[in-house]
Amino acid sequence: MEVVVAEHAGFCFGVTKAVETVYDQLESGEGKKIYTYGPIIHNETVVGDLEKRGVKVIEDPDELDASQNGTIIIRSHGVTKEVHKKLEESGLDIIDATCPFVKRIHKIVDEESNKGKSIIVVGSANHPEVEGIVSYATGKVYVIDSPQRAQEFSENVDEEYTVVSQTTFNKKKFQETVEILENRGYNINIVNTICNATDERQTEAEQIAKKADVMIVIGGAHSSNSRKLYEICSKECENTYFIQTLDDLHLDISGEVKLVGITAGASTPRNIIEEVQNYVRTNF
Ligand code: SF4
Predict the structure, then answer these.
(1) Which of 17, 99, 200 to mutate to test the pocket of ligand 1 (most atoms within 8 A of CB)?
(2) Does this chain's domain 13-98 share its CATH topology with 101-190?
(3) Backbone φ, ψ for residue 204 (5° rounding)
(4) For residues 48 and 86, what is the distance between their CA atoms, to the nearest angstrom?
C-alpha cells in the first residue's frame, strides 16, 4: 500500500510567522505578559502548549484594562480596524502578525471603497478574517458565502463593485460565484485574493484524493481552510477522514486499498502529520 503525503500540507508561511512570533516573544520578552488576540492558530495542541507557558488568549478588547502591561500579538487572520484601535488604546505593545496576504486585501478594500466602489467579499461573514476585511470598507460592503447567495444577490446593477475573496476560500466556488454575478449583469472588478498557499494546498489535495482509496485530512475543527480541504477531498474520495490528531483516526480499511493520501490544513504542526503518516505506514 502506498502512502502519499501532500507537499503543501501543514503550516503555511503566515501561520508559521505568527506562531514563531509568540515563541520568540516568550524567549525574548523579558518576562512581559504575552497575550494573543484570539487563539494564534486553530490547533489545540499548540494553543495548549502556549497557555502552559503563560500566554493568555484575549477574545475581546474589553478584557484588557489600562493597568495591564505586556505585549499583544495579532494573529495571521488580522483584526477589524475598531479592534486594532482599542488594542492601541489599551497601552499594550502590539505585534501585528497579520499575514501580508490578508493585509493586501485590507489595502485593496480601503482603496477601492475610497474610489466609490462597493465591495463584495466572497467568504464566510462570521470568520474573523472576513470581519477584518469588511471593516476596511468605507462605503457599501457585502459578503457572499456561496454561488447560491450570488444567485440571490439583489443590489443595484448600475453600481461598480470590486470583488475580493477570503484567502482560504475554495477557488472553484469563487470562480462560480463571480461568474454568476457577471452573468446576472453586475459590473464587477474581480481581484482573486485566495492566497497561493491555499491554492497550492487545495489543488494538490484534490489531485491526491482523485487517486486515493482512503484520504486523511488533518486539521482543527474550527479551521476553515481545513474544512474546505475536507470538502474538496471528500468529493473526489468517498473514504475521506477529517481528524485533529492521531487519536481521532479510526481507519476502517477493508477491501483493496492501494493508496492512502494525507493532507493537512494551514494550522497543523509537522509532528502531527508525521505521527499520522507513521501510524498508517506501520499499521496497514
Ligand atoms: Fe497567509 Fe495564506 Fe497562510 Fe492565510 S493561508 S495565513 S493568507 S499564507
Answers:
(1) 99
(2) no
(3) -65, -40
(4) 26
According to the model, what pLDDT value does residue 67 have? 59
The DSSP letter of residue 215 is: E
Bridge partners, 216 (sequence order)? 241, 262
pLDDT confidence of residue 267: 86
- pTM exceeding 0.90: no
Q: Where are the domains of the chain?
A: 2-10+196-283, 13-98, 101-190
Q: Is 230 in the pocket of ligand 1 (CB under 6 A)?
A: no
Residue 146 has what DSSP assignment?
S
Q: Tens digits of per-residue pLDDT, 120-144?
A: 999 999 999 999 999 999 999 999 9
Q: What is the DSSP letter of 246?
A: G
Rounded distance between C-alpha atoms, residue 61 and residue 163, angstroms:
30
Helical pair 13-28 and 44-52, crossing angle rounded to 10 deg:
10
CATH of domain 2-10+196-283: 3.40.1010.20
- Residue from 40, 74, 130, 167 to probe ligand 1 pocket by mutation (most atoms less than 8 Å from CB): 167
- Domain spanning 101-190 has what CATH number? 3.40.1010.20
- What H or E segment, with its residue span, contains residue 178? helix 171-183
For residue 105, the CA-to-ligand 1 centroid distance in Å is 12
CB atoms within 10 A of CB 156: 11
Locate cell 466609490: which residue? 116
Q: Shortest CA distance to 178 belongs to which of 263, 258, 245, 120?
A: 120
Q: Report whether pLDDT(107) > 70.
A: yes
